[in-house]
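User:
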Amino acid sequence: MARILGLDVGEKTIGVAVSDELGWTAQGVETIRRQSKEKDLARLKEWIQYYQVGEIVVGLPKNMNGTIGARGESCQAFARWLEERTGLPVRLWDERLTTMAAERMLITADVSRQKRKNVIDKMAATLILQGYLDAKSR
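Assistant: Predicted structure:
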């Protein structure tokens, strides 16, 4: 079974997570500092090749009432662009509250504010992907 890449796409960073070979667990891989679409794509393609990824999940930030705002539209556009550029299926996954959940976990673990800033996006990507994997296995 091919691995699945999970992404938390923000304006400044992209959190990256990957599933295990069986598609049961998600592990955080990296937080990419965004530079340009082409450089971001090149880095993502390195992970896709390294882990032999067969599918990508992009977090879709919805408003609490379920509507899609500007950030959500930006993620939808990124997902379509990524699918065209990689040829892989890209799924959108409701990511409401994942960044807040990641922040809470890190605070509970007593991680300093500076360290939280460096890992929050990678952790959010992990939570997005884990939610997707859990839903798929049900």
